[in-house]
Design a protein that fits this description.
The chain is an all-alpha fold and about 120 residues long. It is about 70% helix and about 0% strand.
Length: about 120
């Protein structure tokens, strides 16, 4: 139960960071195309994400770090680069992120991406 609550918090935090989980799929695809076409744009988004994740509560950063198998200090950069690089490359789909909110969806793909295994 404790792991499920922490895992849920991590997934919830990820969905907030994505910023597009409530957006239409066309907006998701437009943002993806923008990141693919402009490395500077993607770097800016990742930098903003690093600041946001780095300012989260320590317990939340610790949970993300454990899930990702990185140090707490490295967690913001690892999370943001893995998440946005997967989004930009198409390895992370709109449907994958929408599934974060579902109690029944399989989130194993998302976890593998965060762990750098996909």
């Amino acid at each position: 139960m404790r792991f499920e609550m922490r895992f849920g918090a991590v997934l919830l935090g990820a969905s907030v960071l994505a910023g597009c989980t409530s957006a239409k799929e066309s907006r998701w695809n437009s943002a993806q195309a923008a990141m693919q076409g402009s490395p500077a744009f993607k770097r800016g988004i990742i930098a903003d994400c690093n600041k946001q994740v780095g300012s989260e509560q320590l317990k939340d950063r610790q949970a993300v770090a454990r899930l990702m198998n990185v140090s707490v200090a490295r967690a913001p950069a690892a999370f943001c680069s893995r998440f946005f690089n997967a989004w930009a490359s198409g390895r992370l789909s709109y449907r994958d992120v929408q599934g974060i909110h579902s109690q029944t969806a399989a989130n194993s793909r998302f976890v593998r991406i965060l762990q750098g295994r996909q």
